[in-house]
Amino acid sequence: MIAKINEYIAEVEAFExxxxxxxxxxRIRFLGKKGVLTELFDEFKKAPVEQKKExxxxxxxxxxxxxxxxxxxxEQMEAAADANAxxxxxxxPSLTLPIGSRHPISQVRRQxxxxxxxxxxxxxxxxxxxxxxxxxxxxxLPEYHPARDMQDTFFIQTCPDILLRTQTSSVQARHMEKxxxxxxxxxxxxxxRNEAISYRAHCMFHQIEGLYIDKNVSFADLKQTLQYxxxxxxxxxxxRLRPSYFPFTEPSAEVDVYWGLETEADYRxxxxxxxxxxxxxxxxxxxxxxxxxxxxDVYTGYAFGMGxxxxxxxxxxxxxxxxxxxxxxxxxRQFSEVL
Length: 339
Ligand code: DAH
Description:
Layout: H1 2-14, H2 20-31, H3 36-46, H4 49-88, H5 104-117, E1 122-123, E2 129-131, H6 132-135, E3 155-156, E4 159-164, H7 169-178, E5 183-192, E6 204-214, H8 219-234, E7 239-246, E8 249-258, H9 264-269, E9 275-284, H10 286-291, E10 300-307, H11 308-316, H12 329-332
Parallel strand pairs: 1-5
Antiparallel strand pairs: 2-4, 3-4, 5-6, 6-10, 7-8, 8-9, 9-10
Helix pairs in contact: 1-4, 2-4, 3-4, 5-11
Bound molecules: 3,4-dihydroxyphenylalanine.
């Protein structure tokens, strides 16, 4: 009888289920009511007492082997069925992952950079932690120059020569030190000022600086470039240049774009004038060129600088500067379709 049981054990161990039906057949054959095991247990009852222990143990081994074989084969079949279902059901809808969107500041930055790169400007950038020379002195703002007060600066306490740049104009100075004209660069970046945070001021914001230096660059070139820019950016090319003062340009101007007075919003954002100030600009001061090793008798150029938050505010009618930096998805989601 032992030999018979061992044969069955070998059969159980060799069994491979080829289908659900063959597995069920196997289960009934061994574990069913009238199956092999029932039959053997009946036979076992009649076995001589001295053989009972050995036969009993062998029977138990057979029973465990058959039960385990059935359950592992069943698990394997279920797993295979799952995998198959995943592979073949091509009509199942995919998971919709929220893909997010670009921040409005990034969108506007990309748009401005794109507009200028179409007319030959290339990107140049500089560090946010800057030294006094590049942020101020080289740009015609020597120590004690009253115009330094226009930009409340964060200094590094232990090292008064190091500061957080207050303007991306610092990149002008860096770029001109390392490159000779012709120079045509656009420099977007973060700037910092020690301002109390409110709906219209922040201690961190973004600017884009532009610089063009070559032989015979004139104020007319500047005006043409600005007109091209406002047309591409806002669809408006009527601009005016109001005389202004910046230490690094002479003459200097503020650029206003004619926004129009068609809607109530136009009245509100232009304070009833139809005009909107969008940036500062001017012809690069000969002192700046001299400071960075470019001969002002040979070369001239223009520069301009604008705030990205302000551009985005005008484009999307955003009224509170703080919204840009709070990462409220309800605000950010509104920009997923723009541009
Ligand atoms: N750096 C100036 C600011 O932060 C903006 C600016 C004005 C940049 C005139 C220029 C410029 O290059 O010519 O207020």
